[in-house]
Amino acid sequence: MAPTTDLRVLIGRERIAARVQELGAEIARDFAGQEILLVGILKGAAVFLADLARAIPLHASFDFMAVTSYGRKSQSSGVVRLLKDLNEDIAGKNVVLVEDILDTGLTLSYIRDLLLDRQPARLRIAVLLDKTSRRQVPLRADYTGFEIPDEFVVGYGLDYAEKYRNLGDVCVLALPPGK
Ligand code: 5GP
Fold first, then answer.
1. What's the gap in Å between 9 CA and the centre of ligand 1?
2. What DSSP state is assigned to residue 78?
3. Which of 103, 113, 142, 159 is catalytic?
4. Is 103 a catalytic residue?
5. pTM passes above 0.85
6. CB 81 within 8 A of CB 106
7. Backbone torsions φ then ψ of 100, nearest 5 degrees
8. Fewest CB within 10 angstroms: 81, 100, 125, 135, which?
9. What is the spatial distance between Cα 109 and Cα 139, in angstroms, rounded to a whole number?
10. In 3-state terms, the chain is what percent helix, strand and coil (to 5)?
11. How far is the CA of 101 from the centre of ligand 1 (A)?
12. Partners of 122 in beta bridges
């Protein structure tokens, strides 16, 4: 990828790796002796899920959902359309929902309610990043990597127009005016 001056490292790869190990250990402690199902929200959570899964010394299977939210640009409406549902039935299972970033909370609270309707044994939420100052609905993740300020970030799975997902660090992207 061509170097760009529009990117500033916010959280470097070593800090991410260390924190992901801690989160994995916490999850393993909370679900000791049990199996878990990691549910990733595509595409942003794919990188985080891949690393987190390897930091959890339990039997862990994966499944993925893809969603799109309406009205994000001007105002997040909280109405989410399911583009891809889970392959597995989650009734009676220990589910850890894995997301890249918690912003207004609208998307994740919609997904959480959808999954709770399917009656998992337990449902926990893990997010790499949390912009707490942006929250519109009261939602807290059970496992949070880092709280970050209200800046647009890319890397480690997060994109801008499908770019930058493969950056190893979480970086602040200076967006052109009006974006
Ligand atoms: P929420 O419903 O919590 O407002 O939306 C969360 C979603 O918005 C995330 O899954 C992500 O797709 C997107 N999002 C929020 N903040 C950022 C950001 O700083 N960078 C990127 N790339 N996506 C973001």
1. 18
2. -
3. 103
4. yes
5. yes
6. no
7. -70, -50
8. 81
9. 7
10. 25, 35, 45
11. 6
12. 94
Query: Ligand 1 centroid vs 59 CA: distance in angstroms?
Result: 29
pLDDT in tens, 96-144: 999 999 999 999 999 999 999 999 999 999 999 999 999 999 999 999 9
41/24 Cα distance (integer angstroms):
18
Domain 14-149 has CATH 3.40.640.10: no
Atom of ligand 1 nearest to the CA of 148: 19
Structure token digits, residue 34:
């049990």
- Give percent of the chain above pLDDT 70: 91
Would you list the DSSP string of 10-47?
Answer: EE-HHHHHHHHHHHHHHHHHHTTTS-EEEEEEETTTHH
Q: What is the pLDDT of residue 177?
A: 72
Domain range summary for the chain, segments of one domain joined by +: 14-149
One-letter amino acid of 152: F
Residue 2: per-residue pLDDT: 53
User: Rounded to an integer, what distance in angstroms lies between the CA atom of residue 76 and that of residue 36?
Assistant: 31
